[in-house]
Amino acid sequence: AGATPDTGGDDEAVAGVIGRAEQILDEIIDRLDMVPQTLFASPEAEDAYVRRQVDLHKYIDLLEESGYLRPARRVRLAALGTEPIIVMLRPAGAADRAGQRFDGNLYFRLVDRPGDLATYADKAHGTAFGSTDQLPVRRFLVQASLLHSELEIGQKSINVGNMQVDEPSRKYLVVQNRSETPLMYAIRKTGSIASGDIRFADNRYGVVRGFDSRKVGFVFTPSLNGVYNEQISIANVLNAHGSKRAALKAVVRRPTKFYIQSLHLDFGEVEAGRRPSGDAQVLAIKNMTAKARRLVVRPQAAGGGDAGATLEARFPADVAAQAARLVDRETEEKIEALEQKLKIAVRKNRAEKVDKYRAKLGKLRSGGEQAAAQAAQAQVRRLADDRQLE
User: Fold this and answer.
1) Distance CA 269, CA 29 (A)
2) 3-class DSSP state of 101
3) Are 276 and 309 a contacting pair, CB within 8 Å?
């Protein structure tokens, strides 16, 4: 790069910008790694390291766009002056093999030679002062080992399927390094409203060792209904042309506000003018949302008119509480413990224990539901008897 462009004055603001650019350039020279590190004290340290490397690559482009770094073909030096020249090597293509050798040369020569700088050799050969013959060329040798960084992802399309609003779904991306060189990757989202429903807990920026892979988990919790087709970009920090994209697809339905266990209540044969001899019917309504909701129940005869029958809905507080609590706390704790044991047995592929735990879970769940249902039915019978005595 050539000299810093002339600011056209001694403006303090411009001088401050130039000073900041010099600091950034020094940091790029000292901390920009061509081969990534692979050992880190913690995942946070790895994340911070890759993020800083990404920023340093961006700073190089900013310094070029601002004109602070310019292609240099001719450099004019003042008397006893010095000028830094930054050499930037950017291979045009990928290396054919790991560690491919690169050898290059930079040549420096004087364009305007004052006459008093004639060398002894010029005088010995009788060369006149001011001749257009130039002094010997100075060569600067540039050597490097070209490394190849190749990124691949295990699945380019992640189909979540059908789900409801606010229903979390855990998925993961597999970042694969197909080269010997450590791979630095950065996962980026599009920035749209839908992309805010995708949350990466960790490993969004990281380093993958040579010929290794890493699973990067994320949680997708849709906030809107509709068809989702969100793009996730996995960037190769050292090779911008090797970035990949993965598509997250899902069909999000409108959430069901409440659920009715049975839409048909049968009282059997009822004699006109008398109450049914059987038990009162229980209508179970379940709230399917995380918020408390108020429902209005309006009894109405078939056809919308008065068919000579009266429908009455009653909601005793104790019956509602018993119907909502199908299993008591002690049974819930037993079920949770058995579910954990079942997961361990499935993971260890122990078929006998899997069948045993599943049978116990079935008994606990069915027993708890039957006990709660019997208690609710008994309470309803007492309520019906009290109404007949009125």
Assistant:
1) 92
2) strand
3) no
For residue 320, the surrounding DSSP H or E stretch is: helix 317-324
Most confident of the ranges 118-122, 335-339, 362-366:
335-339
Token pair for 218? 């994320």
Whole-angstrom CA distances from 219 to 188, 202, 207, 339 are 15, 11, 21, 23
Cα angle: 89, vertex 91, 95; to 5 degrees: 135
pLDDT band at 385 (very low <50, low <70, confident <90, very high): low
**Is the whole-model pTM more than 0.70?**
no
> What tokens appear for 121 in the block?
């050799």
Q: Dihedrals φ, ψ of 330, to 5°?
A: -65, -40
- Count Cβ atoms below 10 Å from residue 113 Cβ, excluding itself: 18
Residues 190 and 243: beta-carbon distance below 8 Å: no
User: Are the C-beta atoms of residues 177 and 210 closer than 8 Å to each other?
Assistant: yes
Task: Check residue 23 and report its DSSP letter.
Answer: H
351 vs 252, more confident: 252
Cα separation, 245 vs 158, in Å, equals 11
Token pair, residue 352, equals: 């006998």
| 230 in Cβ contact with 252 (< 8 Å) | no
